[in-house]
Amino acid sequence: MTRKLTIAALMLSLMPLTGCGSSDPHEKAIVEMMDCMEEMTDILATVKDKASAEAAKPKLEAIGKRMEASKKHMDELGKPDKAKEEALKKKYEGRMKELMGKMMKESMRVMMNPEFNKLLAEAMSQGQMK
Predict the structure, then answer these.
(1) CB-based contacts of 85, cutoff 8 Å, min separation 6
(2) Does residue 130 form part of some domain?
């Protein structure tokens, strides 16, 4: 759970880099991360019982690995120049906030259930910031 909150903090700090459909490597990296967040949220929303939690586990592990790779790529790229950072933040801040809210809501719902937490806590932290 702590790692999920760390990912959330990372995403908020990367919000200025957000974009889509661009040849800019910063935008491509953050779009990949946002796609992972959206996919993770969709998978978590399907967790309603033990069977669905077990089905979600390998999917969440795979997303965790993709998120780690995206974060590494963003770290390697560094930040864009100040003007581009501000323009991207202004344009995409709303989408990022919406994604973060949905992801955190589903993460908290799942992790507050002791049975789901036991099944999914490792999967949700695997392959992410260590």
Answers:
(1) 16, 17, 79
(2) no
